[in-house]
Design brief:
The structure is a homodimer.
Chain A lengths: L2 E9 L12 E9 L9 E9 L4 H4 L18 E11 L9 E7 L3 E4 L6 E2 L16 H13 L7 E4 L7 H11 L2 E6 L2 H9 L5 E4 L6 H8 L4 E6 L3 H8 L2 E9 L18 H5 L3 E4 L9 H13 L7 E5 L4 H7 L8 E5 L4
Helix pairs in contact in A: 2-3
Chain lengths: ~350, ~350
């Protein structure tokens, strides 16, 4: 069977805090260029790879989560957009564009097809299938409509608001008729929120000595819906500003360096005082809604009602630094790696 | 107009941590023995007064809660069972037994009638109308059925399980077909849970060096429903033991001495991992269900399916110490003060 060299990003060993570049290494492996008959597998060439905060969790030695950890010495896995090179699977043929879980490498033999999809639409940038139309976009969609129970005119706050998920949450909330405020960690991101993504107000949390005061300034009436991507001190400050019967969708805790050292949340008494509902969720629990999500978002996009900001790095070699950068907020918008343009 | 002396428990000044007996004082005021014509008021003689943890919140200078603080120098207010002495209100007449918010004093002129009710049933101990059939019982009922979304066979954990609310939650959960574990702070209370209140298992949290380990021992399969009366370290340990799609009803935080010094909760990441819903609630949001609650609980009680444990103190003078005792777990069961037997 023919083989070719295959550049790969390999996971070295379990981490405790945030990932460092040295937790991953570039290796050159080999890939078989044919798919074994009867295997049902698909060989793909990877075009775009997605860097997502949840991947930090897979780098930790913790087995009780919704997804198992990476095995040390194995290739990093994540969402990607790929082109089928060879297929033994009836639903896929050479030349098809696909999105789903793939390897951080040039070529991957796909054997698991959960959330693996053929890309139909071609008038949307291909890389959007790991962002706007992929897991982060669907997280925003399911979280906003299914977890936040929005009502027109409500006050919505989004943290990490210019990120892969937050930027769509804010735009969906605006379209729904909410008043939307976002937080981000640089002046540039705050400008994007206000001038490009249509947020009503935004602030740079790194320049606010008192997050409670910042929230009271931007949302003097309080918060009906908090879409929480960060946890920690921001969540604690938001709790003090929740309105009666408010809702908190707990989507991510990117601010928390480690599980054992998570910052303490002190203001949960507000859940009682204001009868607040707080709910953790994963997009994968709502996959029955995926087709309507794709239809709606493509419509909004074509009508110019939503935009999507990407931070594109070139080359597989750039992937470790890009992943690491997520945890210091280095990325501006959805972080994607372009492995190959086609 | 005729007046009579009226022993009263007066609130001295705002507190910061837990109340002390010296935050209240016994005074002898005066009460008019006739109700002013056209006032719509009702004069009652107080028979039983209720000591409830939420009253601590009214002793703090905090105006953004669901109920305003007590005014320093005024008589303490709380739930009580009383007998109407004189009435200018069309729904009440002399001799009626009533329950609702009254004063910590011998006689009270009632002018607000929220949650004020005439007592119909007479084959239930009168004092139960501030417990089993009053606010705490209704809190258990609304919290369990409306907030916990129980399913038969689920694993339920209740903290402060022998208290005014917890003891009914546990019994309702058992009747519903759940497996029920409770925690309490003395051996005597643990025995009551297991031998009198029908809990499947119970433990004394004060004798457990590791709450996580205690929960794993009593609930090896994990927790579907946590009815949280205490907050703090127990909540943090429970979070580590929640099952997929579990629910936490946040009813009280009696363990938390003050708002500003609340213990940090570190394990909220579990809300995401296990897709848990956490919800604060107040019984007063569910008052439309009160009639069916009374019917159901009276039925269960008459059928011998539920019991209710009270801790009865004699005399208005005993009220401050009884209230203070709630916060060290001195009470065994629902804390009531008998001001007068009739």
């Amino acid at each position: 069977m023919e083989e070719a060299p295959n550049k790969q990003i390999v996971f070295r060993d379990f981490i405790v805090g945030n990932p460092k570049e040295t937790d991953m290494e570039l290796k050159v492996g080999k890939v078989g260029l044919k798919v074994p008959e009867g295997s049902g597998a698909v060989l793909v060439k990877n075009l775009y790879l997605s860097c997502d905060p949840y991947m930090r969790g897979r780098m930790r030695e913790y087995y009780d989560s919704y997804i198992p950890p990476f095995a040390p010495g194995s290739v990093i896995e994540g969402f990607g957009v790929s082109k089928v090179v060879a297929s033994d699977h009836p639903n896929f043929k050479a030349g098809d564009l696909v999105s789903g879980i793939t390897g951080w490498e040039e070529y991957t033999l796909i054997q698991k097809f959960d959330q693996f999809r053929k890309i139909q639409s071609v008038d949307i940038p291909l890389s959007y299938h790991v962002g706007l139309l992929g897991m982060p976009g669907f997280t925003a969609y399911a979280g906003f409509y299914e977890v936040c129970s929005p009502k027109k005119g409500e006050y919505v706050f989004v943290s990490a608001a210019s990120g892969a998920v937050g930027q769509l949450v804010g735009q969906l909330a605006k379209i729904y008729g909410c008043y939307v405020v976002g937080s981000a960690g640089t002046k540039q991101k705050v400008n994007l929120l206000k001038n490009k993504l249509g947020f009503d107000e935004a602030f740079n949390y790194k320049e606010e000595p008192d997050l409670d005061a910042a929230l009271k300034r931007c949302l003097p009436q309080g918060i009906d819906i908090y879409f929480d991507n960060v946890g920690g001190a921001m969540l604690d400050a938001v709790l003090l500003n929740m309105r009666l019967h408010g809702r908190i969708a707990v989507c991510g805790m990117v601010s928390q360096k480690s599980m054992s050292g998570a910052e303490g949340i002190h203001n949960l008494f507000m859940l009682i005082t204001k009868r607040v509902r707080m709910r953790g969720f994963l997009q994968s629990d709502y996959l029955n809604l995926f087709p309507q999500f794709v239809d709606q978002i493509i419509n909004y996009y074509k009508q110019g009602k939503i935009v999507y900001i990407e931070d594109m790095n070139e080359g597989l070699e750039s992937a470790p630094a890009a992943l690491v950068g997520l945890f210091s907020g280095k990325n501006v918008g959805k972080q994607v790696i372009c492995v190959s343009a086609d």
